[in-house]
């Protein structure tokens, strides 16, 4: 009997050990499954958060680039507008300067014409004065010869008059 009790006891211990091992194994499997489930759930959650962050980042970058391009376009437009205004102002000032220069030349031409006429008349008078005061000059020829004009031309230009 002792042996049979012992055998029964060993058999019960084996069964308890087997049942315990089975229970522990089931608990470990459930724990591993639960850990894998939780890990997968949070990895998925982490990937969703990363995707949202990337989407927000891309949106911010796109908006920033759009604003940058808008500002560049506005700046370029402003520069072109100001350049055109400056060129218009320069053109107006150049036209104004040309008008002033033209008026000055017109006034000067009128005054210079009068000066040139005066200088010509003074040279003619000088020639006549020289003729009148030169005792060696004799005027010959008929009245149709313009001897005085020939002598005046000679005196003014320094060239000999052409013979008639």
Summarize the structure.
This protein is an all-alpha fold and 164 residues long.
Account of the 3D structure:
This protein is mostly helical and 164 residues long. The protein has one domain. Helices cover 87% and strands 0% of the residues. The chain has two helices and no strands. The chain has helices at residues 2-133, 147-157. The termini are far apart.
Output the keywords:
164 residues, mainly alpha, 2 helices
Secondary-structure blueprint:
Layout: H1 2-133, H2 147-157
Helix pairs in contact: 1-2
Biggest β-sheet strands, sense, barrel: none
Tally of DSSP helical segments = 2
Number of domains: 1
Shape estimate: rod-shaped
Task: Give the proportion of residues in helices.
Answer: over 70%
Radius of gyration: 61 Å
Distance between the termini: 184 Å
Topology as H/E string? HH
